[in-house]
Structure formats: structure tokens, C-alpha cells
Amino acid sequence: MNTIITIGRQFGSGGREIGKKVAEYFGIKFYDKDLLTRAAKESGFCEEMIQSHDERPTNSFLYNLVMDTYSFGYNSSSFVDMPISHKVFLAQFDTIKKIASEGPCVIVGRCADYALHDYQNCLHLFILADRDLRVKRIMERYDDVTSEQKAIDMITKKDKQRQSYYNYYSSKKWGRSESYDLSINSGVLGIDGSVKLITQFVEDFESR
User: Fold this and answer.
1) Residue 181 — pLDDT band, cuts 50, 70, 90?
2) How many angstroms separate the CA atoms of 185 and 140, rounded?
3) Mind listing the domains of the chain with CATH numbers?
4) For the chain, how far is it from start to end, CA to CA, in angstroms?
5) Tens digit of pLDDT for each residue in 87-126?
6) Which residue has the higher pLDDT, 89 or 14?
7) Confidence at residue 191, expressed as pLDDT on a 0 to 100 scale
8) Can you spell out the DSSP letters for 118-167?
9) Are the C-beta atoms of residues 21 and 195 closer than 8 Å to each other?
10) What is the C-alpha to C-alpha distance for residues 4 and 7, in angstroms, rounded to an integer?
11) Sheet with 105-108: strands ordered across
12) pLDDT tens-digit readout, 54-99
């Protein structure tokens, strides 16, 4: 097993659970929010600061300057004046690359597919599901979500944040099939069915 798997996901689609089960199947590491802890430790930012900017969009500063700064490294003078949201993004970007260099794993969200776009041993997946199923799942998962409307509001807010974040920092479009190697509707296959499809897909990829 030598493949790095990145997973983008709609809120409530079960993407995290699917990713964790795929990692367990292959016996490899799984990264979601613990990626933030590592990014904080390696960058020197406090973890609360990184969490507060986690997969949240920003409208300040130019995308090109962000990527130029990344290319030139942290010693660039423009990095000093960069908004904190961009510094946090770059810290996560670096951490994702370090994690990928350590071996096969599953990474959920955080533009990981874009951070690793030039890696040959990566598969980039996206998990989606119909809204009704996601509403049901969110109401079961969160005790404080007691109405369908509150679940719908959470879905709208979270998906909008993830889409804006991804589209801002990536050269691709969040959720569009052409941005990924495989898109799966977990509402059709279920969690375990989605895991089965992904593991078969990875095994076929490795044996090609």
C-alpha cells in the first residue's frame, strides 16, 4: 500500500466516517482535525487560531500573492504582512506535504488534493449525498440540532464555507466531478458500500 487518499465532502455526507473506515481497512493513518494540531505544533501558531480559520474562506489579499509567497518561502518579506488566514493556510499546506512524505494515509478536507496535486501516488475523492439524507444524519449526530430547518441551515453554512475556501485557495472547483478522481453518492451506496467501492478503487489503482 503506497497510496495517499484525499477526501473532500459535503457536510453530513459521512465523508469523515468513510475516510476513517478506509484508513482502518488499509491499516494506514487518518487525518482530519488532528492535522490542525500538528500544523499548530510545527508552525508555532496556537491551535485555537488554526481551528478558528479551519476551512473558512477569506476575501482579503490576492490569491496569486499567497501562492507566490508559498513558492518563495516564509522568509519572503510579503509573508510578514500577510493576513493571518493566509499564514494559517500555508501552515496547513506544509503540514499536508510533510504528512504525505511520511507514507500512505487518508486526509480529509483542507484542500489536501490541491496541496498534493503533483504527487503521483494520490487519489482524490469527493463524497456527496442528497440533502434529505444529510439532514437526517446531522439530526442524529448533533443533539442540539432539533429541527430539520436547523440542520438545513448548518448544511448551507458549512458547504458554503468549504466551497468558498476550496475555490479561493485551489485552482479547481469544489464538488465538481472533474476536480476529483472519483465522486461517490454515499446516499446510494451507504457508508459501508462507499468504503467497499473506495477500497476496490484504490486496490485497482495500486495494481495498474
Assistant:
1) very high
2) 19
3) 4-60+94-206 (3.40.50.300)
4) 13
5) 778 888 889 999 999 999 999 998 999 999 989 999 999 9
6) 14
7) 97
8) T-TTEEEEEEE--HHHHHHHHHHH-TT--SHHHHHHHHHHHHHHHHHHHH
9) yes
10) 10
11) 29-31, 105-108, 4-9, 122-128, 182-185
12) 666 554 444 444 444 444 444 444 555 566 777 778 888 889 999 9
Q: Cell for 200? A: 476496490
Question: What is the total residue count of the chain?
Answer: 208
Is 186 within 8 Å of 132 (Cβ atoms)?
A: no
Q: How confident is the model at residue 52 (pLDDT cuts 50, 70, 90)?
A: low
Contact 152, 135 (CB under 8 A): yes
pTM: 0.84
What contacts 24+ positions apart, CB below 8 Å, involve 132-137?
Answer: 133/12, 133/186, 133/187, 134/10, 134/11, 134/12, 134/13, 134/187, 135/12, 137/12, 137/13, 137/14
Amino acid at residue number 73:
G
Element (H, E) at 205: helix 186-206
Q: What is the DSSP letter of 177?
A: G
